[in-house]
Amino acid sequence: MNYSNIEILFVEDSIDDAALTMRGLKKGGFSNTIFHVKDGAEALDFLYCKGAYTLRNCEDHPKLILLDLKMPKVSGIEVLEKIKSNMELKTIPVVILTSSKEDPDIKRCYELGANSYIVKPVESDNFFQIIKDLNFYWMISNQSPK
Amino acid sequence: MRGIVTDINREEFRLLKERRRENDASYENSDWIFLLFLVFIVVILALVVILIKNQNTKNKIAEELQKSTLLIQKNIKEISAVNSELEAFSYSISHDLRAPLRAINGYAKILHEDYASYLDTDGISALNSIHSNSKKMGELIDALLAFSKLGRKQVTTSQLNMDALVKLVKEETANKLSKIEFTLHELLPAKGDQVLIKQVWVNLISNAIKYSNQKLKSMIEIGSYSKDNLVIYYVKDNGAGFDMQYYDKLFGVFQRLHSQEEFEGTGIGLAIVQKIIQRHNGAVWAESKLNEGTCFYFSLPAL
After folding, report:
1. C-alpha torsion sign, points B151, B152, B153, B155
2. Which residue of chain A comes nearest to B148, CA vs CA?
3. Strands A64-67 and A116-119
């Protein structure tokens, strides 16, 4: 598979949340290339070009990372920590997209350098709206370093 | 010669008498000394007994103190165990219970958007029910989480300008105020946590608006007065009111005195108000008459 020009790296272990988010992104009318990885370990493999991603061009970074927090094996917090402590990766905006409204999670993520923290709403209209707004803001309004 | 012997005898007798007298006196003296000695011994013994007793009491007190300390430490351990269990519980609710609900709600929405043409009106109505019920459950979970978070939140008190706070809350709910006659008396200041007390005003004012909404004209009055070392605030409306026989359910979590069809709500608002006020060492109470209106009161420490 060709991994070049992936704009959004989407890290999510729940198949349902992934399906709903992908639908929200597509329904929002955006045509950004999104790549979905199913847990934190795979996200790190992707970013560090290891495991299944050894052939990926490692200088080709995604423009945005959407990161779930509660995942098996390697949690979102650990992934975030690894991204933000790496000179190459730390400038990629990371948006936490999670179910947790817990203050310690929010605080910890910002301490580690998260760029945004979004709690996924239960109600689908709100959920799709948030996904649409998020894409619009990070892919169009916001300027990230090249 | 006889005379001399008699003199000597007399003298001896006198001397003997005198010696006996002296002896007697010295006996008396040694009696006193013995008595004093006895008293001294008794006093010393008493002191020793008191000291030992004192030491025993001290030991006992120290023992008791140690016992209490251990008990307190055990209690603290138990409480923090319960606390962390509660935290883990609400963490799990926050993470794990919301996710499946989001899926149920989201897929119902997808069915509605993409497959509505395959369904008849009953099918559509069933889908709508799935959608609205999962949404409702999401709201209940959020309400429960907000309530449990309150118990763990630290209260930071400062001097509160209640006038400004209430005006702010009133403005924030302004879009709903079209047909409401507001009477806002000047409010006394008090001590409290700005964020939490604002929540109290939001809940009480939005309740007053909600429950008086069906009247031709909603009338809401907000005021305060001082009593002893407390300031008492009140929010009075001319709304639906409630039957005072159900008063003990008023502040319960998820307890409602009206049906969902009459007035929407989760039943957490007043439980939150009570919890916040209790955490400020204040009290909250209400007076109501069915169909005539309700007046909510809460007290806070005065400045």
Report:
1. positive
2. A102
3. unpaired
Residue identified by tokens 């999104």 is A34
Smallest CA–CA distance from A20 into chain B, residue: B106
Q: B18-58: per-residue pLDDT in tens?
A: 877 777 766 667 778 888 888 889 999 999 888 888 888 88
B103:A20 CB<8 A: yes
Of A70, A121, A125, the CB nearest to B95: A70
Tokens for B255, please give them.
Answer: 């307890």
| Cα gap A35→A66, rounded to integer Å | 10
Query: What is the residue whose two structure tokens read 């795979």?
Result: A42
pTM of the model: 0.67
With beta carbons under 8 A apart, name residues in chain B contacting A102: 90-91, 94
Distance CA A42, CA A74 (A): 9
Containing B48, the helix (H) or strand (E) segment is helix B2-92
* pLDDT tens digit sequence for A117-134: 999 999 999 999 999 999
Pairing of strands A34-37, A8-11: parallel
Residue pair B239/B217 in contact by the 8 Å Cβ criterion: no
